[in-house]
Amino acid sequence: MRTNIVIDDALMQNAMEASGLKTKKEVVEKALVEFVERRTRKDLKELHGKIQFADDYDYKAIREGRQ
To answer: Are 12 and 27 in contact (CB under 8 A)?
Structure first.
């Protein structure tokens, strides 16, 4: 879809530097993808009571294995 939009130059420059992307189009597309992913991700509160862990699941033992 082709469209024309007005974006603050300083904001676009900051976004390009932060992302490492080379073009304005890449920055806008990446921002839209991240926006949609964030908005469609399940909220942890919605999952409360819907996940059933294995009886022998021990999160503390798993954490001890990390360094």
So the answer is: yes
B/e letters for 5-19, b = 16+ CB within 10 Å, e = fewer, are eeeeeeeeeebeeee
Q: Is residue 3 part of a domain?
A: no
d(C-alpha 66, C-alpha 61), whole Å: 9
- pLDDT 10s digits, 9-35: 999 999 999 999 999 999 999 999 999
Identify whether 4 is part of a domain: no
Angle between helices 9-19 and 24-40 (to 10 degrees): 80
- Give the predicted TM-score (pTM) of the model: 0.63
